[in-house]
Each structure stands twice: as C-alpha cells, then as structure tokens.
Amino acid sequence: MAGKKVLIVYAHQEPKSFNGSLLKIAVEELTKQGCSVTVSDLYAMQFEPRATRNDIVGRLHNSEAFNYGVETWEAYKRGGLSKDLVEEQKKVQEADLLIFQFPLFWFSMPAILKGWMDRVLVQGFAYDLSKSYDGGLLQDKLSLFSFTTGGNKEMYSNGGIGGDIRYVLWPMQHGIMHFCGVKVLEPHICYAPENVSEEKRKEMLTGWTQRLKTLWKEEPINCSPEWYFK
C-alpha cells in the first residue's frame, strides 16, 4: 500500500539462497505497491549479536554489578545506547510492518537474528514492565515471520515428530512481538525448499508473491495461547 513503510530483517548468509529469493520478491513487490522498504541484512552488516557492555555509551548505572536489562533501559532513557542500536531502533520506529526472513535453526531463529531481538528491543523502547502485550510500546505495528524449514510439513504437524509448527512460533510471535505490542500476521512458511523439485520451489515463490499483493488486507492472528496450543 502506497506510503507504508516496511522493515525487512534478513538473516541468511547467501544472497542466492531460497531465503534470498524470498527477500528479493518482498522488496520488489512491496516497492511496486508504493511502499518504502528498508532491509537490515544482518550477515552483510556483520551485526553484533552479543549483548554486552559495548551497547552502552558512557557511564554505567551500576558499575559494581553489570545488569544488561537495567543498563540498556537507563541508557535508552538518557540517549546512551550504541550507534548501531539507535539506527535499528529508528528503522523499527518508522516501520508500519516488520518482516523477519530467515531459515529455521534448531526450532528457532538464527543466533544473529535472536541477537537483533535481544539488543534492539530494549526496555523503554519496545516495552515497559507495566506496558507489555496489548499495552506494549510498539502496538501500532504489524509483523510477519517468513521462514524456511529443513523438514517437510508433515514433520511439523500435530502428529509429526517435530510437533505442530505453532509450538515453535510461540516464543517468537507471542513471547517477543506480542509482548512488545506488535500485531502478528499469519506466518509464511516454506517447508523444506532444498528437498523439493524446482517446480515446487517456483510454486513457493509464486505463492509468496501472491500473498504480498493482498498483505495489507489481512487481519492479524488472535494473539492468545489458544492459537498456538489448541
């Protein structure tokens, strides 16, 4: 939709990968719609995933015992976060939609993307102790997790060896996005693209293109435990 701002946080090492193709499609299709699209390509940026004292510029609130949560909260309030965090927070603040594009690693997101969550979504910016979930500080935004898996759809079904894929989504969608007040769209999952035919991969890419065309008309999921564990 024209005028909308989109931030795509991309976590894959190889531009020619299937994830890279999904990223390219999203940038092209959303730009074609008149959206302003920004990409944080975490590997290309050599984004630092470790949450350390380096994230705080200047004095510490308590130099005797380092507490990352407290220190980043205090630093955010006084404008003392490191430059890379301030830049990412600005992108988040300006975005109407956050898309996370990545391959599923060990039933979770890659470490570099988890590090982005840990370091960017600090207290005071994304949430406060009295302002979380529906009252989170980022409640005017939408999010979408788009990812690939190694296993097929049957493996991630209710009766499959991996269990329902929604169990995997609980900490990412509910524990992070919903906690920060962000509304969550249905995830876009491409199952086992490395283990299917070229024709099937093309179908997956076409399906992503088609979904993006009507994305702004979608309603967010019901952010409740029932959606994940019914």
Short recap of the structure:
This protein has 8 helices and 6 strands; from the N terminus they run βαβαααβαβαββαα. With 230 residues, the chain is an alpha/beta fold.
If you compute it from the alpha carbons, what radius of gyration comes out, rounded to the nearest whole angstrom? 18 Å
What percent of the residues sit in helical stretches (DSSP H or I)?
Answer: 25-40%
Shape: globular
Structurally, the number of domains stands at 1
- Flag low-confidence runs: none
The CATH topology is what?
Answer: Rossmann fold
Strand content: 5-15%
**CATH classification, class level:** Alpha Beta
Tally of alpha and pi helices: 8
Biggest β-sheet description: 6 strands, parallel
Label the CATH architecture.
Answer: 3-Layer(aba) Sandwich
Order of helices and strands: EHEHHHEHEHEEHH
User: What would you call the quaternary organization?
Assistant: single chain
Report the end-to-end length measured between terminal Cα atoms.
33 Å
CATH superfamily, called what?
Flavodoxin domain
Roughly what is the average pLDDT, rounded to an integer?
96
Q: How many strands in all?
A: 6
The computed structural class is alpha/beta
Subcellular location: Cytoplasm
Organism: Lepidothrix coronata
EC number: 1.10.5.1
Protein name: Ribosyldihydronicotinamide dehydrogenase [quinone]
